[in-house]
Design goal:
Protein name: AMP-dependent synthetase/ligase domain-containing protein
Shape: globular
Organism: Paramecium pentaurelia
Helix content: 25-40%
Oligomer: single chain
Distance between the termini: 35 Å
Number of domains: 4
Keywords: ATP-binding, Nucleotide-binding
Strand content: 15-25%
InterPro entries: AMP-binding_CS, AMP-dep_synth/lig_dom
Number of helices: 21
Mean pLDDT: 91
Radius of gyration: 25 Å
GO molecular function: ATP binding; long-chain fatty acid-CoA ligase activity
Strand order of the largest sheet: 1-2-20-23-25-26
CATH topology of the largest domain: Rossmann fold
Number of strands: 31
C-alpha cells in the first residue's frame, strides 16, 4: 500500500495519545486541544437543546431565521417568530393529546411524534416545538421503502405523524398502519387523497389548526434533562430492517459544541441552503448548529432540478453536500472547461497547475491573478461561498482538490455516523492533504482495533515511496472505534444490535477500517461489515473495489457483488454517457445509449480499463473482474441508494438479480 508523504509542519497535529495501546488495538487518541477533558456543552447554562434554542432566540430575536421560497424569492421568519410558532405548535400538540407516551423499552419514557416530508420550514419548527415540549421526533423518509415504514410504525407505536402531500402517497402504499391514527398535514390535499386516507382510518388535522389551537391555550414548557431522548433516528441501512438510534439531548448538544470549535467557524452572518435530508443527523446537526449562532437557513423547493436556481437566489455562504453531488458538479465544470481553446486554454491550464501546487504544498485556496479564471464556477454556488463541507462517504482527492481551487475556498471533510450524532472527525484549513477524515472532534476519543481476517492490525508495516526509494513504515490500521458524549445510548427495542455496536466499555464499533496518518488524523481504507468470502475462502471488500472502479475512465458508478459459491466477483457498472458516445463514434458503432451498453466491443473496452486501472492500484486478481454488466440507469433512479446516497446492497442485489445470474452463467460457459 502506498502512503503519501506530506509537507505539513510537524507543529500541526490533529490528535495526541492519551492512553497506551493494549494488545490488539492502537493507543487511545484525542483532539490536541481537548486531551484532559472531552467537550460536552458549548457554554455554561446550555445543557440541552431547549436551553440552546431559547438562548439563541433571545439573543437573535429580530434576525432572519428560517426562509421558504415564496413567489420569486426567499421569505424569512425571524428568530422571535419561529420561537412563537414553535410554542403555539407544541401547545397545540399537548392540548389535543397528539403525542402518545410509550414506556416499552428499558424504562425510556417518551412522547413520540412522527414527521414525513422533505426539508421545509415547518419541519424545523416542529423539531423546535418537540425540543421545547419534551417530545421525541421520529423522522420518516421515502427511501426507507414500503416495508421499512410499517416496521418503524410497529416498533414505535406512533399515533401521530406530521407529513407533506407527497409523503401521503408513500404512506398509502403501506399495508399496515399499526397504531398510527392522526395525520397533521403541512399541505392542502386533493379530495381524492383525503378520501383515501380517511378510508384507511386516519384522522386528518391541518398544521395551521394545531398552531391556532395552541395559540389560544399556551402551555408551559417541559422540563428537559440531558438524558432525555431527543430523537429516534432510523438508519435506512445497507442491509435488512432499519435500526432506531436513540439520541439524547446531551449527545446532540455535545455535537453542536464540537461543531463550534471546528475550522468551519460558523457565525451569525452565515447563510445555509437546507436540501440534504433533514431526517439524517448530518443536516440536522448543521441546522441546529447554525440556529445556535444566529445564522439564516433557507429551504430548497423540494425539487432537485431547481436546486441550482435556489442556490443562486439564496447565495449561501456555506455549501454542504455529499461526494456524489460534488462529483456531478466536478464533471459538469470539467466538461465546460474542456470546451475552452487556444490562449484561454493555456491560461486556464496554468491557473489549475499553479493553484493545485499551492494548495497541495501550503493549503492556499486563493490567488490574486488566477482566481478570475474561476469566477463562473464561484457563481454556480451563489458567488459568496466562503466554506464548503463534504461528508457521508469518502471523496476522491482529484475531485475535492479541483473544487477547492475552482470555488476558491476550503472544503472541510467530516465523518460521523447516526450513532455518533453526525460529527466524529473533521479536517482543518491548514491541511494541504485531502481525502481523509482529519482529526477527532472535541467530544470524541478514538482507537483502532485489529481486524485479523482482513490483515489489518494496530502494528502494521507498510511500504512508502519517496521518489525511487522504498521505506518500511510502522503504521496503525484497524476498525475505527469511538467513545464520548456524542455516542448514542443504543438501538430502540434491539438489545442484540446494540451489543454489536457498543461494547462494555462504551466504545462504538463503526465497521469502518481506518489508518492513523502522520498528523494524528484518520483515513478510511476499507469497510469491515460488507466483506464477503468467495468459494476459495478469500475475503473480498466490495467498497474498496468500488472506490477504485469509480475512478476508472468512463465509469460513473459501480456495484460489486460476490457469491460465496462462486470464485469471481461480478460488477454492475453505470457508464458515463459522454464517454460511451465518444467511444462509439471512434469505433464507428451505431445505436442509442442503452443499445451501446449491450455492445460487446464497448463492454470489452470497460473490461480493459478496469483491468489496467485495477492493476495500477494494486487490486489482486480476485478483485479485478471480467464479469461486467453495463447499466444505463443511475443507481439512484433504480432505488439502490439511501437518501444520503449510500449504496443499499441488499436492494441492489434484488434489482440486479437477473443480471448477476446471467453473468455467472457466462463464467460457466
Amino acid at each position: 500500500m502506498g502512503c503519501q508523504v506530506s509537507n505539513i509542519s510537524p507543529f500541526m497535529s490533529y490528535s495526541t495519545k492519551v492512553q497506551e495501546a493494549k494488545q490488539g488495538q492502537s493507543e487511545i487518541r484525542r483532539n490536541v486541544k481537548y486531551t484532559n477533558q472531552l467537550l460536552t456543552i458549548p457554554e455554561q447554562g446550555v445543557m440541552n437543546l431547549q436551553d440552546l434554542f431559547l438562548k439563541s432566540a433571545d439573543k437573535y430575536a429580530v434576525k432572519q431565521c428560517l426562509g421558504s421560497f415564496i413567489g420569486n424569492d426567499f421569505s424569512f421568519m425571524t428568530y422571535s417568530q419561529v420561537q412563537e410558532e414553535a410554542i403555539y405548535l407544541g401547545s397545540g400538540i399537548k392540548t389535543w393529546g397528539l403525542a402518545n407516551e410509550v414506556n416499552e423499552y428499558m424504562n425510556y419514557k417518551m412522547k413520540l411524534i412522527g414527521v414525513f416530508g422533505k426539508n421545509r420550514r415547518e419541519w424545523v419548527i416542529l423539531d423546535i416545538a418537540n425540543i421545547l415540549y419534551g417530545y421525541t421526533m421520529v423522522p420518516f423518509y421515502d427511501t426507507l421503502g414500503p416495508d421499512s415504514i410499517p416496521f418503524i410504525l410497529g416498533q414505535t407505536n406512533i399515533e401521530t405523524m406530521f407529513l407533506s402531500a407527497d409523503a401521503t402517497k408513500s404512506l398509502l402504499k403501506c399495508k399496515e398502519k399499526y397504531k398510527l391514527q392522526n395525520l397533521v398535514l403541512f399541505d392542502q390535499l386533493t379530495e381524492e387523497l383525503e378520501r383515501e386516507l380517511k378510508n384507511k382510518g386516519y384522522k386528518l388535522f391541518r398544521y395551521e389548526d394545531v398552531v391556532q389551537n395552541g395559540k389560544s391555550q399556551i402551555q408551559p414548557l417541559a422540563q428537559i434533562y440531558p438524558e432525555t431522548i431527543y430523537t429516534i433516528c432510523y438508519t435506512s441501512g445497507t442491509t435488512g430492517n432499519p435500526k432506531g438510534a436513540l439520541i439524547t439531548h446531551a449527545n446532540f448538544v455535545s455535537a453542536v459544541a464540537s461543531t463550534q470549535v471546528t475550522d468551519a467557524q460558523i457565525n451569525e452572518n452565515d447563510v445555509h441552503l437546507s436540501y440534504l435530508p433533514l431526517p439524517h443527523v448530518m443536516e440536522r446537526l448543521i441546522v441546529i448548529s447554525l440556529l445556535y449562532v444566529g445564522a439564516q437557513i433557507g429551504f430548497y423547493r423540494g425539487d432537485p432540478n431547481l436546486l441550482k436556481e435556489d442556490i443562486l437566489k439564496l447565495r449561501p455562504t456555506i455549501f454542504v453536500s455529499v461526494p456524489r453531488l460534488y462529483n456531478k458538479f466536478y464533471d459538469g465544470i470539467k466538461a465546460k472547461m474542456a470546451e475552452v481553446t487556444c490562449l484561454k486554454k493555456a491560461f486556464l491550464d496554468q491557473a489549475i497547475k499553479s493553484k493545485l501546487s499551492s494548495l497541495r504544498s501550503q493549503a492556499t485556496y486563493t490567488n490574486s491573478i488566477y482566481d478570475k479564471v474561476f469566477e463562473g464556477v464561484k457563481q454556480l454556488f451563489g458567488g459568496r461561498c466562503r466554506l464548503m463541507v463534504t461528508g457521508s462517504a469518502p471523496i476522491q482527492q482529484d475531485v475535492i482538490d479541483f473544487l477547492k481551487i475552482a470555488v476558491c475556498c476550503p472544503i472541510l471533510e467530516g465523518y460521523g455516523q447516526t450513532e455518533s450524532s453526525a460529527l466524529s472527525f473533521s479536517t482543518a484549513r491548514w491541511d494541504p492533504i485531502s481525502s481523509h477524515l482529519g482529526g477527532p472532534a472535541a467530544n470524541t476519543e478514538f482507537k483502532l482495533v485489529d481486524v485479523p481476517e482482513m490483515n489489518y492490525t494496530a502494528n502494521d508495516i507498510v511500504t512508502i515511496h519517496k521518489g525511487e526509494k522504498e521505506e518500511k513504515l510502522a503504521i496503525s490500521r484497524g476498525e475505527i472505534c469511538l467513545r464520548g458524549p456524542g455516542v448514542f445510548v443504543g438501538y430502540y427495542k434491539d438489545p442484540q444490535k446494540t451489543a454489536e455496536a457498543l461494547d462494555s466499555e462504551g466504545w462504538l464499533h463503526t465497521g469502518d477500517i481506518g489508518m492513523i496518518t502522520e498528523q494524528g488524523g484518520v483515513k478510511i481504507i476499507d469497510r469491515k461489515k460488507n466483506i464477503f468470502k468467495l468459494s476459495q475462502g478469500e475475503y473480498i471488500a466490495p467498497e474498496k473495489i468500488e472506490s477504485i472502479y469509480n475512478r476508472v475512465q468512463g465509469v460513473a458508478e459501480s456495484f460489486v457483488y460476490g457469491d460465496s459459491l462462486q470464485n469471481q466477483i461480478v460488477a454492475i457498472i453505470v457508464p458515463q454517457y459522454d464517454y460511451i458516445q465518444k467511444q462509439a463514434n471512434l469505433m464507428q458503432i451505431q445505436g442509442g445509449f442503452e443499445e451501446l451498453c449491450q455492445n460487446q466491443k464497448i463492454i470489452s473496452l470497460f473490461k480493459q480499463n478496469i483491468e489496467a486501472f485495477g492493476k495500477q492500484n494494486q487490486l489482486n486478481s480476485l478483485e479485478i473482474t471480467k464479469l461486467i454488466y453495463l447499466e444505463p440507469q443511475p443507481l439512484q433512479n433504480l432505488g439502490c441508494l439511501t437518501s444520503t446516497l449510500k449504496l443499499q446492497r441488499h436492494i441492489a442485489k434484488q434489482v440486479f438479480a437477473k443480471q448477476i445470474e446471467n453473468l455467472y452463467k457466462q463464467q460457466v460457459q
